[in-house]
Specification:
Strand order of the largest sheet: 1-4
Strand content: 5-15%
Oligomer: single chain
Distance between the termini: 70 Å
Shape: globular
Length: 279
Amino acid sequence: MEKRITAELIEAYSKHLILEEKSKLTIEKYLRDIMTFKIFIKEEVTKENVIAYKHKLIEDNYALRSVNSMLASINSLFDFAGWNECKVKSIKIQQEIFCAEEKEISKMEYERLTAAARKKHNERLALLIQTICGTGIRVSELKYITIEAIKNGLAQVNCKGKNRRIFIVKELRKKLLSYAKAKGIIAGPVFVTRKGKPMDRTNIWREMKQLCKEANVSSKKVFPHNLRHLFARTFYKIEKDIAKLADILGHSSINTTRIYIVSTGFEHQKRMESMKLIL
């Protein structure tokens, strides 16, 4: 029996993901990866053309983690369709002991971004940047930063089938309540568009990118998730408790949290220099 990715199969798989309670963004990502694979093979699914697709992604210089993520999407479809013989192995990636300095945002750069937002009279963006960096929440979780949560100093976040509490520090609470009062926001999410809808990832990404030149920060570093990384590294430097940090970030695995707290190559080099083992 031929194995073909039909519109009917994709529709059934999409419904399956909904019943599995996958998030909207996760479902969109899985389906996007599957359509990319479908365009590549142009024919029946076989183990051989799945392997060829895997090699093509590597040849096209996709990051290895991205390759594994894309393979996981199509393997998930194969599980659903009962095509287990077509599944391929992910690429083994050695754990990095430090991250590239040009990819991770520093505290000084974060401060310059916030200042640039204020200079552009965009107080909403300045506070949004501080909220992500000051709480460690995901950009998709900003909708849980409501007037009610701010007054309680605690946001109840429901993400990826898990519930967790996010503490909002006193100084941030004061800033957010002052902003909300000025904007006439008396209930619900604080970070909303002019039409009153919660800001989405695209809005936020675009506004942050517009700060790069003014803040003198590389555009490669400026995206919401990097602020979450800065929160994680800063917290870990103080607490040295990776299990507690994993709980705060909402990670199921400490291995995921480890990715967030690797130091830059420059910091790694400084530690090596301080060892003074060259006589």
